[in-house]
Amino acid sequence: MDKKNAPAAVAPETVASEGGASKRGASVDWASLRADGPLHKIGDCLLANEEYMDTYSALRQVCRNWRSGLPEPDVHLHEWIMVEHVLPRAADFTFLHLRTSRYVTIDLTEVHARYYFVGFYRGVIVLAQKNQPHKIRLLNPLTKTLNTRFEAHMPYVILKSVAVMKSPTMVFVSKDYPAEIAWVDESTPTKGIDEDWGEGRFSTEHHSLRCITPFNGELYAIAVNNFEFGKLVCTNNVQLEQRASSVNMDTLFSFPELGNNKFYLVKSDGALLLVLLDNKHLEEGQPLVYRVDTESRSLHAVNNIGSRAFFVHYIRCISVDTRVHPTLRPGCIYYAFGLYQRVL
């Protein structure tokens, strides 16, 4: 997948801001189209397919009459990933649609001038204001929708990873020293620099936390100790509770029978999978992939991942369909450190 061959951006060069939206000249023909005409059906078709979310945003930008009667769409982009780029100076962000292998490059110069980039998670760019108190902002890069409802600031520590969940909208952050996951929602107030950050926190001594992953409305992570013995931790009642302060996180179950290893979480084809690093600690013939049964709190060996390929890393793991990306090997696990891979 060569970023140099990426097509030009389809999305308009406009970015929503807290003080209002910047505007771009639109052709009179498009701008004057009636709001009750065929645009509704065209917009609904584009909105129903996540691949065309950038085209939907471009249509909204030029069709002034139609746009004025519709709220900004509130969507999560599950099928897009951000291609790594140089920070902090780069203002062009490139995204890849996993299902179709389509690239889109978007100029976010205006955002880059006012916000720090914190992370990208499931189609949402997590930002922090450059001015004090560095309040959290969430940007959908394809629709240019900016969530400015957060009062909480970003923590004054080096973060390992970040995650965003909805219903209600919450931001989870993970850090190493100490190993901790903390979270806030839109009603969390701004706190002082010396106050504990977050409405809730989960910490574990002598462990590191990896691969925070949403699944079936909850958030999961792998916790490993210094000897690489693992356990699975998860939230409870994220979707049922109305406040982040009511959410808890605890150990779901441990798996010492897998020995000391490096573990990763991958969500693929509706299942949550535990992936092991193929190393000298594995017994001959031991499976590398296990399906996580969150109800019975157990693991079940998976011997074949079909046409999927996995990219695994401590921070994030993705599952890719090799029928869409023919340069990848089906049934292959790509470890995102060094040049290591394993075919099941």
Would you give an account of this structure?
- This protein is mostly beta strands and 344 residues long.
- The chain has a domain at 1-148.
- Helices cover 10% and strands 38% of the residues.
- It has five helices and 25 strands.
- It has helices at 28-31, 39-48, 53-62, 64-68, 109-114; strands spanning 16-17, 20-21, 80-82, 92-97, 102-107, 115-121, 124-129, 136-140, 145-147, 161-165, 170-175, 180-185, 200-203, 207-215, 218-225, 230-236, 248-254, 263-268, 271-276, 289-293, 298-302, 308-312, 318-321, 332-335, 340-343.
- The chain has a four-stranded antiparallel sheet with strand order 6-7-8-9. It has a four-stranded antiparallel sheet with strand order 10-11-12-13, with no helix packed on it. Strands 14-15-16-17 form a four-stranded antiparallel sheet, with no helix packed on it.
- The two termini are 23 Å apart.
- The model is unreliable at 1-17 and 19-27 (pLDDT under 50).
